[in-house]
Amino acid sequence: ILYKIKGYIMIILTKLPFTEDALEPFISAETIQYHYGKHHTAYVNKLNEIIAGTEYENMSLCAIIKGLQGAVFNNAAQVINHTFYWHSLYASTSLPNGGLLEKINNDFGSVDNMKEEFIKAGTTLFGSGWVWLVREPNGQLTLKQTSNADIPMNSNLLPLWVCDVWEHAYYIDYKNARANYLEGFWNHINWDFARDIYEKNHDNNHDHYCQLMDELQDTVTN
Ligand code: MN
Fold it and tell me: How far is the CA of 39 from the centre of ligand 1 (A)?
């Protein structure tokens, strides 16, 4: 949604798709208060501060990050990554279904194999970053690690869900036991959200993911 008021667009903090305590005990309300209320919010505020008066101030988030590096990229990509992360989560336990389930069984061997690969990808990611389920340009589903703010759309991959593996995502609830957080994440993946992206996008054109992200991202114009 684009709200145009006085000519320039402000990036705003998207609403959470669930209440603060909806993910307990997997993720506490306290973690959400910091992760969403402080970290995600800070990326939004910083981005607005550094794009004010520049060529980026009238662009959508996806347009901003294309081909960029540095502070503008880092903050804009982190805004997108967090919005996508919140939508990747589901309060109840769910399982892959429909055509996506068949594809997982085909490409990973089984859902259990995929889970094992996911836990491995999450525990071996060095430093801060993200683990993504993506569709490769050749159609295959794979798990991808990215570092810091990096986002897979710049490598022509279509993301279906993402797990935040920065310490701020789990440290309050799990301290250094990252694998326990990853186990919890696995049980709270929003498989319907992933299946919708998978089924609605028949190629890996960046514009599809961009359009989705810009739809999820509420923006307001001043
Ligand atoms: Mn985070």
Answer: 7
Tell me: the pLDDT tens digits for 114-133?
A: 999 999 999 999 999 999 99
> Are the CB atoms for 111 and 105 separated by under 8 Å?
yes
From ligand 1's centre to the CA of 34, what distance in Å?
A: 9
**Which helix H or strand E contains 219, and what residues bound it?**
strand 219-221
Are the C-beta atoms of residues 183 and 196 closer than 8 Å to each other? no
Q: Tell me which amino acid residue 38 is.
A: K
Other Cβ atoms within 10 Å of 82 Cβ, number? 24
Query: CA-CA distance, 80 to 112, in Å (whole number)?
Result: 29
Closest CA to 134 of 113, 155, 148, 150: 155
Query: What's this model's pTM, rounded to 2 decimal places?
Result: 0.93
145 phi-psi bin (left φ>0, alpha ψ -120 to 50, beta other): beta
Separation of alpha carbons 169 and 174, rounded Å: 9
| Cα of 222 from ligand 1 centre, angstroms | 27
Q: Could you tell me the distance, in angstroms and rounded to a whole number, from the CA of residue 13 to the centre of ligand 1?
A: 14
Q: Could you report the per-residue pLDDT of 165-206, keeping only the tens digit for each?
A: 999 999 999 999 999 999 999 999 999 999 999 998 888 777
Give the DSSP letter string of 80-146: HHHHHHHHHB-SS-----HHHHHHHHHHHSSHHHHHHHHHHHHHH--SSEEEEEEE-TTS-EEEEEE
